[in-house]
Each structure stands twice: as structure tokens, then as C-alpha cells.
Write a structure and sequence with these properties.
204 residues
């Protein structure tokens, strides 16, 4: 699957379909993309087991090919002047700034439009800065075997747990991809968006 997706467009789609607990139905979350309705479902125990086997197989293959695990990779990065622990601290500092902002906004009334808009702007500015650091951290850690195997785990689950609506009136759905191999060939942003939505669903 080629990564030709514009990052800003991807984040815009994920933000537009941000998961809210009240929108989850029967352990599924529906979202729209390019005028089509999709949904992701919580994986079954069998799907999780299959994904774990795929993850373990991926991990073994990476290690045998000489790709370092995360603990060793962190040392290599530090030798190159990249301190992941410091990045984690900065990300956490932004999270500590966000909490009181959200609390302050929650205390305002819906009629306080300007005040709420001010908080929204401040929250977005902090979230944007935090997002930049999270992406930087992810880029630094992406080469290590643990992260590559974990990403493969989520991709495998996404390929199994994503459906598209074929008849809204009859509530009929079918799998978007018939196999993981089909998912890997996907060049549309739906592959990334579905993975993001499934990740969020599993964290709710």
C-alpha cells in the first residue's frame, strides 16, 4: 500500500469523524468518506488471535533481518542526539496544559459564544503543537521492529473489521477488503482513515 495520502487531508477526515461514545452502536462505529458510509467493528477474539500471529511473524522476520527492537533503537537514537524521553516529557507537558483548558471550557455556558470560541482556539493551538511532537516521535520510532510489528497488527485488524454499507435501508454491509493482501494493495485514504477509527474505537 503506497503512502501517497496528503497528511492534512487525512487529519481533516479523522477530525470530521471523531469518535464519540454516544455514536458507538453494538460495538461498531459508522463514518462517512467520499459520500459512502463505512463502519469499523470491535474485533472478535479469533480476529485478535489471527492479528497477534501476524504480528509475531512480522516481529520475528524483522529481527532476523537485523532490525533492532525499541530498547536498542532508543540507544541508537540517543547517540544521534535524539532524546525520545525528552519528547515524551514535552508531549506530556502539552497534555497538562490541555486538561485545565478543557475544564475551563466545560464550565462556560453555551451562550458564552466568544469565551467558548477563545477556548476552542487555545485548545486547537496546543493540540496542533502536541500533534507535531507525536508525529515527530512516531517518525523516529517507526524503523524499530516493535513499532513495525504493532502497526502490522492494527493494519491486519483493520482489514478484517472494516465494512461498507451497500444498502442503507436494509442495513446491509459487506467487508471492504476480502483479505489482508487486498488491504495492502489499497491506495485510497480509506485504509488509513479506517485504521484510525478502529484504533480510536478500541481505546474508547
Amino acid at each position: 500500500m503506497e503512502n501517497q495520502i496528503n497528511e492534512q487531508e487525512l487529519f481533516a477526515e479523522l477530525d470530521k469523524n471523531e469518535i464519540k461514545e454516544e455514536l458507538i452502536k453494538d460495538n461498531r462505529f459508522s463514518f462517512d468518506y467520499e459520500e459512502k458510509k463505512y463502519r469499523v467493528a470491535m474485533p472478535t477474539q479469533q480476529q485478535i488471535a489471527d492479528a497477534r500471529r501476524h504480528k509475531n511473524k512480522t516481529m520475528v522476520g524483522l529481527i532476523l533481518s537485523g532490525i533492532p527492537k525499541q530498547d536498542k533503537w532508543l540507544k541508537i537514537l540517543k547517540e544521534q542526539g535524539i532524546d525520545i524521553a525528552q519528547l515524551d516529557k514535552e508531549i506530556n507537558d502539552y497534555e497538562n496544559v490541555l486538561i485545565p483548558l478543557h475544564i475551563s471550557k466545560a464550565k462556560t455556558k453555551d451562550s458564552e459564544v466568544k469565551t467558548r470560541a477563545k477556548f476552542d482556539k487555545e485548545i486547537k493551538e496546543v493540540e496542533d503543537k502536541r500533534c507535531v511532537l507525536i508525529m515527530e516521535r512516531a517518525d523516529h520510532l517507526a524503523p524499530c521492529a516493535d513499532i513495525q510489528a504493532r502497526d502490522e497488527y492494527m493494519r491486519f485488524l483493520t482489514s478484517q473489521c472494516t465494512e461498507i454499507c451497500i444498502d442503507e435501508e436494509k442495513d446491509e454491509w459487506k467487508k471492504v477488503w476480502n483479505s489482508f493482501a487486498d488491504y495492502q494493495k489499497e491506495q485510497n485514504a480509506i485504509a488509513y482513515i479506517a485504521e484510525g477509527q478502529l484504533t480510536s474505537l478500541m481505546l474508547v
